[in-house]
Each structure stands twice: as structure tokens, then as C-alpha cells.
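Possible regression after last week's pipeline update?

I re-ran a chain I had predicted before the update to compare outputs. Posting the input and the new output here so someone can diff against the archived version. Not blocking, just want to make sure nothing changed silently.
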Amino acid sequence: MLHLSTCYVVGFRDGRIAETLTPDYTPREVADFDARIEYESLRQLQREIETLAESGQVTERLSRQILSKGRRLSDAELDAQIRKHRQRWTRDELIEAGMIRARALGWPNTYTLTKSIAESLIARFAADLPIAIVRPSIVETSTHDPFEGWNEGVNTSAPISYLLGTFFRQMPSNGKKCLDIIPVDLVCRGMILIAAALIERRQELIYQLATSATNPCDMRRTIELTGLAHRKHYRAQDDFNKRLLAYFDTIPVSKERYQKLSAPAQKQIVQALQRILSPLPMMRSPLVRRERDLDRVEKIIELYEPFILHNEYVFEARNVEILSAALPEDERAAFGYDANYIDWWNYWINIHIPALRKWSYPIIEGRPVDTKSKRTPQLQTPKQSVAAG
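New output (post-update):
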């Protein structure tokens, strides 16, 4: 079995992260933590929340919220609305409960918590089975396969990079921290090598697929390159407002400066203006929209803080490099794994941000993705491309 995990099972920690697995691991080193008990406890919590969602207490509360909006609904319409709101209520309660538990144990979110629990359960129940656990870092735009600049959906860097293409220009981040990005096609190459080793029963237990140890790109450089990529795009536009965006520089700042001069402070000013203008509803409407936008910014920053501000990780990726080095010469072009071929300047400005602009930003903006103008598949392998360059 090839199990897909994530480098970020490490949680809130600093330093060099080895390719090892610690059973019943918690970042906060909780002495009596047991992954199996935790798993059963979370399942029980899930059942309790779902049962509560069907209770008369919650149903009555949801009904009052729906009817308070002043709409006249038939019994069937009200029932349909209650079902819809109940699903949302259940989702929000599960997210909140999971986040509280994850952070109490030292993980930034439920994704990393549950991935780590899965690793611990594998270590306990499958120690004698042929299993390889693969931990990619932040998987992003392809460089070659299926073609240069392929991406899909709203992935990790899309919301942050989108934000830096607006008038928002102060990013709370640690400039020295490495944002460990790895192209999706390089991940696929690594997984093919690992799967082959697994079939031959020559696998290691843990494989990290990451760039921070061999070809790092820190947050300061990442923010700078993102800003340059947006500037290149906006300077080519005819729209005045878009061309204006090209003159705003993106800078990494401390959390304190962000709170004093960016979204949180601006939101307080907008809220104060709304209170002053409360007798004039027509003038409050733009302020309400502005407050909503600033609230979204705050939520995005809060969500991504663990990856852009806290914890200076360096993920070792030696095990997959050993597999790649063992390949026969005639197979290295097709299956070789080497993170050193990535030119981060070219990747961010000419490949990654344009790919996000095509595949991800329309989804963020609620627009359809244009799938008619796909790029011609790139047939060169990374090593062939470097040699040709």
C-alpha cells in the first residue's frame, strides 16, 4: 500500500524534519496520547454533533433564524430550508470542534491532525506489511507534465497569491521561512519511483517529497516573485484600475505591523464609520461591502499563518533521491527525480502565477474556468529541458 500523507504532519515545530515516523506523535509531546483512542474519540464526537443537529433544540433555533428574515414560506419550503441550514450548522460545528482539538495537540488544522493519526494507526496495525507513506509538501503547478502550467481548483497558494494581486500589500510572514512548494509532476515522478520500490519490497517507510532541503525558496523571495508576476500581467492590461495595481509593491511584515496598519486596523475604521453613518443607510452600503472584504482577508491570513509566518521547517527528501540515483541510465529522463532543476524566478513569474490566473483565480472570483485554450502538452522532461536551455 502506498499511503499519501503530508509533510505538515509535523505540526507546530521548527528545524530539520527527518524522514521518520513516531507512533502516537503529537507536536506538543502529549505523554499519554494514543492515536487509536483519539480516532475513536473523534468518531464519537462526530456522532454526537450529528445527533444534536437533528434535535428539537437545534431545529427550533434554525427555524427562528430562517423566519426572522421576513420571508413567507410554506411548510415544505421551511422544511427544505431547515435541512439546508442543518447541514451547514453540522459542518461548522465539526470544523470548530476539529480545529480546537487539533490546535490543543499542536497541529494547525484538522487536515494535518487526521493525516498524522492515520500514520500512527499504520505504524501500529500494519508494521509487518509492505507499506510506504508518502509526504508531499505544498503541491502546486506542473512544470512539464501533462503540460507546462497545469493546475486545478483552489489549492494552497492560490488564495494568498490572489490576495497579493489586489490592493492588499502587507503580508504577515517570516521572510526567512521557506515556503516549501513542489510541482505536481515532480510529485508524480516521486510516487512512481516509490511505487516501483514498494513492488520490489525495497521501500523505506517514509518518503518526503519537498524542496526546502535541496532547492529552497524563502517567503521574502516568494512574495517578491509573486508581486513581479502580478506586475508583469497588469502592465499588459488596457484597464486603468488594473494597470494601477502594477505600482503597488508587496512586502513581508511582522504580525504587529499587519495588525496596526493592514486589514484588522482598516476593519476597525470601517466599523467606526458605519456606526457614525448608521442614520444614512445609503452611505453605509459600500462600507458593509468593504468590511466583508476585509473580513475575508483576515480569515485567509489566519488560515495560512502556520505556513507563512510560524515554524521554520526544512524537510529532508533523501529517500526518493536514493531511488532516483539507482535508476538505469536509460530510464532517468522519464522517471528521474531532481528538485534542483526548478528555477524559482522562472517558475513563479512565467509558470505558476499565470497558471493560477487561468485555472484558480476564476473559481475564487466565481467565474467559469476557460478550458478551451489549453497549452500544447510539454514533451520534454525536466532534465531534457535544462539541457536544452
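Follow-up from reviewer: compared with the archived run. The radius of gyration is 24 Å. Marking as no regression found.
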